[in-house]
Amino acid sequence: MMPPRFPLGIFPTPLLEAPRLAKALGGPRIFIKRDDMTGFGFGGNKVRGLEFYLADALAKDADVIVTGAGPQSNHVRATAAAARVAGLEVVAVIHDSRPADTQGNLLLDELLGAQIRFTNNPDRALVDSRIGEVADELRRAGRRPYVIPRGGASALGALGYIEFVRELGLQLQALGVAPTRLVLATGSCGTQAGILAGAKIYGAPYRVFGVTVSRPVEECVGRIARIAGEAARLAGSDIEIAANDVVVRDGFIGPGYGIPTPECAETIRLVARTEGLFLDPTYTGKGMAGLLAEIRAGGIAPNETIVFLHTGGEPGLFAHSEIKDLTS
Q1: What is the pLDDT of residues 6-50, one digit of tens each?
Q2: Is-contact 302 25, C-beta < 8 A?
Q3: Cα distance between residue 228 and residue 221, in whole Å
């Protein structure tokens, strides 16, 4: 039995075919699962996991959420919005220093009243220890903090994507479609872990194919296998997740996490001009660039059917005007 949820999202999210994009690529058939339309706080994949986190926080009588990520974090923005609906405050630890301009997700964080603590250090791993320090500080002040890990990646957060697999399965069945791969951008690894666990539990017909946008492949594989196994057990399943069950492709991070690349910019333009659909420069733009490269290299046959998971993040576009000038 799944743990309780605090309702936030609007589900199921749409599953739409992208025929003009497929035609531009010469096949295969492509469907896009629109989790940018989860319908809360500008949507995105983080909403599914936050339903479980918020229920747990309220059950533990928390009065403030402590979490963290980067300056343009979709996770922090969605967490701040979710916390407000649940009547909680938010403190977010953000790596690096405050940008010169408050744009995109950071602007939304501040509109939501999140208390932002910058680390003034580019080391993203430093966020993890600072989250714990902030939680301790709040406890000493008499507060009741609830900690959500950086990016929301844990077994509890991944439960939302076990449920996603069941939802997607019903949509595919209604369409009479059996895809060979589900492709997504992989960052903190919780989403891919949940989908992998769900695919095993529900016997999904597709292989889960991640494109890393932030971490080395070896680190992704280990984190995904561990979180997937923990999430499956939390959901009451005894399935086994092995490292060779995890597929993650490298080569699309570029100069670093959150920095747009020419391939990413080209992909954002192509999807916008074929499907009128916006991708973001941190996650979905790089994830879709990985899918396009695989198709163009012949690694995916024209007669295959692919599902691409749109994890949201469009507000980040407004903080990266430089993508209009990037070319491959």
Answers
A1: 999 999 999 999 999 999 999 899 999 999 999 888 999 999 999
A2: no
A3: 10
For residues 119 and 98, is the Cβ–Cβ distance under 8 A? no
Domain assignment of residue 89, yes or no: yes
Question: Is this prediction's pTM over 0.90?
Answer: yes
**Which of 41, 13, 296 minimizes the C-alpha distance to 171?**
13
Alpha helices in 86-189 (DSSP H): 104-111, 126-140, 155-175
Question: How many separate domains does the chain show?
Answer: 2
Q: What is the DSSP string of 226-262?
A: HHHHHHHHHTT------GGG-EEE-S--TTSTT---H
Q: Could you tell me which residues come within 8 angstroms of residue 73 by beta carbon, excluding any fewer than 6 positions away? A: 92, 94, 105, 151
CATH number at residue 238: 3.40.50.1100
DSSP state of 85: H
242-253 as b/e, with b when 16 or more CB fall inside 10 Å?
eeebbbbbeebb
State the catalytic residues. Answer: 73
Contact 38, 50 (CB under 8 A): no
